Automatic annotation (TrEMBL):
It is found in: Cytoplasm. Residues 320-589 form the Isocitrate dehydrogenase kinase/phosphatase (AceK) kinase domain. The active site is at 381. Pfam families: AceK_kinase (PF06315), AceK_regulatory (PF20423). GO terms for biological process: glucose metabolic process; glyoxylate cycle; tricarboxylic acid cycle. This is Isocitrate dehydrogenase kinase/phosphatase. It comes from Paenacidovorax monticola. Belongs to the AceK family. The gene is aceK. Bifunctional enzyme which can phosphorylate or dephosphorylate isocitrate dehydrogenase (IDH) on a specific serine residue. This is a regulatory mechanism which enables bacteria to bypass the Krebs cycle via the glyoxylate shunt in response to the source of carbon. When bacteria are grown on glucose, IDH is fully active and unphosphorylated, but when grown on acetate or ethanol, the activity of IDH declines drastically concomitant with its phosphorylation.
């Protein structure tokens, strides 16, 4: 029960110290995000990537700072539970009129659970449910920037309005030819607007901050006409001569889902009221969960909070059981899922077959590498949790037996809260978006028969996408290691994404070699490797026997991606990366780019 009176003198001071800790965190987070504009203007691509990586660490550093302060000044861990009840109530009071209340609640949870024992993880002590609404939050100070700007063009001055939309971001670098680029955008808009009668509410709404990621800056907004809303995004890049260009025009939910994909790096966005940005973006992409939108904005802890709330809600309103995930079982990760829930749960096994020379710590470091790296639309983001509790009666016995066999150190089955409910508690867990394993996707095509033209197109698209995925990873300085089809998945949009990280390496750490010619007839007839192989040596010519056993797959692969079997391809990319080159990887088809003179190189 919550106390009727707030009479603990230290409770308010602790709550205020926690709020100070959060405010410091968000101030630093926002400052770093705002600096992305200058890095973009000065083409500081390595600095942009470094800032994206370092910003991920901000949250945990601030939580640790706050915990140290609370222990040092207030001996917070020794405070009785009724004081902690009062701390939470004081904290709720401090959230009134706050511009980031949902993030502050999550920060409170992070600090509190570091101080209190884990059995106290319920709503009396932390924010299992939000206590403060995020609706209609605005900064009413005179100099404050609104969440979005509205423009009211006519059909006649739409071109001038598009120019003004871009100029209002006040980028401190000259455009190559902004009126020309605006004409390209207008030409892309016209087919969508021309058939319409322009209604009284015809307008363009544009979020007030650009969205920065790698070498691009994106204008994000929507066109409203009557009851129709058209989401759009305009990528701004550096052109061949170093001046700015609008590179393409993206329209509709599918284009924006690709831009904000869970397989891409987080954006840098300067947001005073993040919940307002999320609400706007959700109106553009109603199929995208709010948790994933927070993630794409770099607010991963809030994404985790919302994901867990969504998960608990789903558990309450479903009755199916967790099971071993379909597909070929991995040697390093044990994977299970809930059929009705679009995510998979992965835990590291306690032991691996002899051919897998790795450790739990090394596998965790690979997942951390992916979290910090540019995922270029080809590596799935993961949510990492510790001490996750599931209802025991929702687990198949076969799954429990599998965990007990391969990962007993990760499993606890108990009534940890003493409420009569037996739980399955997993010590350490990764959660990813569920995809169709590429090997199963191809097998479906083979089973249906390649004589069907539509089925053959599915197979060909998959093989081409597989090669494109590897090439995008290479451009991002990633060698996937284990390139078998089973380690790649097909997303809802047909994109092929890599999701098995235990063998990935930086491309620049690998040594790509030709297979030496056999020394004699015995070497030539041998099924064994007769040459010396270093720990980071890779022989691309040896990929074919593992990947191209099916003649139809081989034909498509060799037509589009034969260069992946040539060490020169890998060596060339490695050399360019070592020389400091940062490749362009576009979150849209290159066919969408505006013509030469209006697009980047």
């Amino acid at each position: 029960m919550f106390p009727e009176r707030l009479d603990a003198p230290q409770a308010y001071d602790i709550a205020k110290a926690m709020m100070d800790g959060f405010n410091r965190h968000y101030r630093l987070f926002r400052t770093e995000s705002a600096r992305a504009k200058h890095r973009f203007e000065t083409a500081d691509w390595h600095g942009q990537q470094r800032a994206q990586r370092e910003r991920i660490e901000f949250y945990d550093l601030r939580v640790k700072e706050c915990v140290r302060r609370l222990e040092k000044e207030f001996q917070a861990g020794a405070q009785p539970m009724d004081v902690w009840h009062q701390i939470k109530l004081h904290y709720i009071g401090l959230l009134v009129n706050h511009h980031q209340p949902e993030l502050a609640e999550t920060f409170f949870n992070s600090v509190t659970t570091k101080i209190l024992h884990r059995t106290h993880f319920h709503n009396d002590f932390i924010f299992v449910r939000p206590a403060v609404s995020t609706e209609y939050i605005e900064n009413d100070e005179p100099a404050a920037r609104p969440t979005y700007r509205a423009y009211y063009p006519s059909r006649e001055n739409l071109h001038e309005t598009l120019v003004r939309v871009v100029e209002n971001f006040q980028l401190q670098r000259e455009f190559e030819d902004l009126p020309r680029d605006a004409r390209h955008v207008l030409a892309a808009i016209e087919p969508r607007v021309a058939p319409m009668k322009l209604r009284a509410n015809f307008q363009i709404q544009v979020l007030s901050s650009l969205f920065y990621r790698n070498k691009g800056a994106y204008v994000v907004g929507r066109i409203i006409n009557g009851f129709t809303e058209l989401p759009f995004a305009l990528p701004i890049l550096h052109g061949a001569g170093g001046k700015l260009v609008i590179d393409a025009a993206l329209f509709g939910e599918d284009d924006l889902l690709a831009l904000f994909s869970f397989a891409r790096a987080y954006f840098m966005v300067d947001m005073e009221v993040p919940s307002a940005y999320v609400q706007f973006l959700r109106s553009l992409m109603p199929r995208k969960p709010r948790a994933e939108i927070y993630n794409t904005l770099g607010l991963a802890k809030q994404g985790k909070t919302l994901f867990y709330r969504d998960f608990l809600h789903h558990l309450k309103h479903s009755s199916d059981r967790f099971r071993i995930a379909p597909g070929i079982k991995g040697m390093v990760m044990l994977v299970f899922d809930l059929p009705s829930f679009p995510y998979v749960f992965k835990l590291i096994k306690d032991y691996f077959p002899p051919q897998k020379e790795t450790t739990r710590e090394q596998v965790q470091s690979k997942y951390l590498l992916v979290k910090h790296h540019d995922r270029v639309g080809r590596m799935a983001d993961t949510l990492e949790y510790s001490l996750v509790a599931f209802p025991r009666d929702r687990f198949d016995d076969e799954l429990i037996a599998e965990i007990q066999k391969f990962a007993p150190s990760q499993l606890e089955i108990s009534d940890r809260d003493g409420d009569g409910q037996t739980e399955v508690i997993i010590q350490h867990l990764y959660i990813e978006r569920r995809m169709i394993p590429l090997n199963l996707y191809l097998q479906e095509a083979f089973d249906a028969g390649l004589s069907d033209p539509q089925v053959r197109r599915q197979m060909e698209r998959s093989v081409i996408e597989y090669g494109n995925a590897i090439k995008d990873l290479v451009a991002a300085n990633i060698f996937p290691g284990d390139m078998l089809w089973k380690n790649f998945g097909v997303t809802r949009g047909g994109k092929v994404v890599f999701y098995d990280y235990d063998e990935i390496e930086y491309l620049t750490d690998c040594n790509f070699r030709h297979v030496p010619p056999p020394r004699n007839e015995e070497d030539e007839m041998s099924g064994e490797v007769w040459w010396r192989v270093g720990p980071k040596d890779v022989f691309p010519e040896t990929f074919a026997p593992f990947l191209l056993g099916n003649p139809a797959v081989r034909e498509v692969f060799m037509r589009h991606h034969a260069d992946l079997l040539d060490p020169a391809f890998w060596q060339g990319h490695k050399q360019r990366i070592q020389q400091g080159h940062v490749h362009d990887v576009f979150p849209y088809d290159t066919e969408r780019r505006f013509p030469p003179g209006g697009g980047a190189t």
